[in-house]
Each structure stands twice: as C-alpha cells, then as structure tokens.
C-alpha cells in the first residue's frame, strides 16, 4: 500500500530489480504463515497463490536470490524465509523512532508486527509537553527537543512521521540531519529529502480512493445496457493483472 519515492536506480547494486524487492515482503508474509504451520516445503504455484503473485514471476524473482527450488519437491520454506529476510536486511535489528504520538503514532507503537520483523521502536517522540514521560506501548514518550540525541544514541536509521502535514518537513529535516536515512511518512504531504534518503509514503485515503474508483467501474458495468442509438462505451473495467493485482489507475 505504500507509494514510495526513492533516489535509488530501478535496479539495486546486487542486480535485484526494485519490482522484485517490492514483492519480497509478500513472499515473506506467505512463507512466515507456512512456517508457523510447520509446513516444510511449498510449490511455486502454492506460494504464488498465497502471495497473490503470478507463479512465473515468482520463479523469476527467486532466481535473483539464487533460489531455484527442487523439482517435484518445491522450495524449502525455512530456507526461503531466511534468504528473503537476509535480502531485505531483516536479519539485523532496525531501531525505529516514531515522531507524533497521537492516535496513529500510538496505534503503530502498539503494533506487535514491527518487533517480530526486526523493527524495534527505540523511541516515541512528541512536541506536546503533556505527553512527555507518559507511557505508550510500554515506553515513556520523549520530547522532540531530544530528537537528535535519541537518534544518535540509538543508531536510528528509520524514522516514522505521524504528525500533521504542517510540521512534517521540519521533522523530516531534523531526522535526516541527525542521521536517519529512511523515512516512513504518514503525514499527507510530499517530503523533500537529499540524495541517499529513502521516503515511503503511506496514505490509506489514496488506497480507498483507488478502491472507490474500481467500485464505481463495477457499478457502471452492472448498470442498464446503453440505449441502442448511443455508442457503446469501450470495455473499461479494470482487469486483474497477471499477478492478481489491479492496476492502480486514478481518475483524472
Ligand atoms: N497515511 C494515512 O493513511 C493516515 C491515516 C491516519 C492519519 N494520518 C495522518 O497522520 C498524522 C497523525 O494523525 P493522528 O490522527 O495520529 O493525529 P493526532 O492529532 O492524534 O496526533 C498528532 C500528534 O503529533 C504531535 N505533533 C504535532 N506536530 C508535531 C511536531 N512538529 N513534532 C512532533 N510532534 C508533533 C501532536 O502533539 C500529536 O500528539 C496526520 O498527519 C494524519 O493526517 C495518515
């Protein structure tokens, strides 16, 4: 769901295309579910279905990892979990700071899925003095005056911004100046960052607008057949792509 802006080329230094990198978390999620059920091996077709990806594309993606599976047996689930985790840099701990401990920031801080994937929330920061010292998700909220010190002391490279749009650029600049090189931005604004800093923007309202667009098209298809004297509009219903994904077309 994230829409990202990155200064990196479309292919990473190790030759893995960005599109493949973007699918690795989908495979990992499906593989983790299999691992939790103690499933030892999985075929490319089964895994592709579980991940919502076309199986030929999955095999191509895995070939970049040097993983080809065994004919008649499939892929070793545990080994693939390890390989993909390593490729995504998840075998190491990533300290994260969340700036803005309101509704969204507190919800994210309470989300157990970060820690289980190697993202440790090192600090929660907010500019509101009334929140300083208050415990959220088992952690005392720090004041943003301490942002630079906290980032440096904890070796934080990922910052999550969950504040209103107005202050987001300034917070982003401070995070970057303190050494943060990846930003997950929930604020409804476009952030500008220097070369070498990655920004991923999450906007659930955009996702909903895309769904609304598809809903509208579906409703249009169910509507009354056009009158005989009117030209029949071309068939414009969005089709599922080969990966089962719907092209994210926005109305003009
Ligand atoms: N991307 C999404 O899908 C999505 C979904 C929900 C909310 N949001 C956005 O997330 C942001 C937070 O939403 P919310 O509902 O949690 O708001 P909120 O008002 O509950 O919380 C915002 C918090 O940010 C703090 N804050 C404000 N300016 C700050 C600054 N400059 N430095 C540090 N802290 C600061 C406030 O003190 C407050 O605690 C908003 O921008 C909202 O639009 C995005």
UniProtKB/TrEMBL annotation:
Residues 89-190 form the CoA-binding domain. Residues 26-65 bind DNA. Residues 222-252 are annotated as: Disordered. Keywords: Cytoplasm, DNA-binding, NAD, Repressor, Transcription, Transcription regulation. One of its GO terms (molecular function) is DNA binding. Gene3D superfamilies: NAD(P)-binding Rossmann-like Domain, Winged helix-like DNA-binding domain superfamily/Winged helix DNA-binding domain. It is found in: Cytoplasm. It comes from the Bacteria. NAD(+) binds at residues 100-105. GO terms for biological process: negative regulation of DNA-templated transcription; response to redox state. The keyword Cell wall biogenesis/degradation does not apply. GO terms for cellular component: cytoplasm. InterPro entries: CoA-bd, NAD(P)-bd_dom_sf, Rex_actinobacterial-type, Rex_DNA-bd_C_dom, Tscrpt_rep_Rex, WH-like_DNA-bd_sf, WH_DNA-bd_sf. NCBIfam families: PRK05472.1-3, PRK05472.2-1, PRK05472.2-2, PRK05472.2-3, PRK05472.2-4, PRK05472.2-5. Modulates transcription in response to changes in cellular NADH/NAD(+) redox state. Belongs to the transcriptional regulatory Rex family. HAMAP family: Rex. Homodimer. This is Redox-sensing transcriptional repressor Rex. It comes from Streptomyces gougerotii.
